[in-house]
Design goal:
Layout lengths: L3 E2 L3 E3 L4 E4 L2 E4 L4 E5 L4 E7 L11 E4 L8 E8 L10 E2 L5 E4 L5 E7 L1
Antiparallel strand pairs: 1-2, 2-3, 3-4, 4-5, 5-6, 6-11, 7-10, 8-11, 9-10
């Protein structure tokens, strides 16, 4: 494994990096793990291959929260009258969104 160090941050081949501030994956579905254990994760979702906007969908986090996920926020990315997004039934690995059309999300845990 080749690791690059720029004097303040270590960069790993999988796209993650680590500094005195924590570990980060800067992809469109990524995460930030702070030095104190607090984690932020984010991403977006759309309809699955065999689903429609009216079907719930399970969304997996980019990485598992080591202890607990205590908040998931979902925002619509699709302007369709009357349809709102919400997250429910989350744990350390995934959450369920109430519909499968385009949405962005953010989760916080540790």
């Amino acid at each position: 494994m080749t690791v690059y160090y720029d004097g303040g941050t270590l960069y790993f081949p999988d796209g993650t990096s680590m500094s005195s501030n924590g570990t980060v994956s800067r992809s469109s579905s990524g995460y930030l793990k702070r030095w104190d254990g607090l984690m932020f994760q984010w991403g977006s979702t759309g309809p699955g291959p065999n689903s429609s906007y009216s079907q719930p969908q399970t969304v997996y986090f980019p990485t598992t929260f080591p202890r607990s996920c205590f908040l998931v926020i979902v925002c619509n990315n699709w302007n369709q009258g009357g349809i709102t997004s919400s997250a429910y039934s989350w744990n350390q690995s995934y959450f369920t969104i109430n519909f499968t059309y385009y949405a962005s999300w953010m989760a916080i845990g540790y």
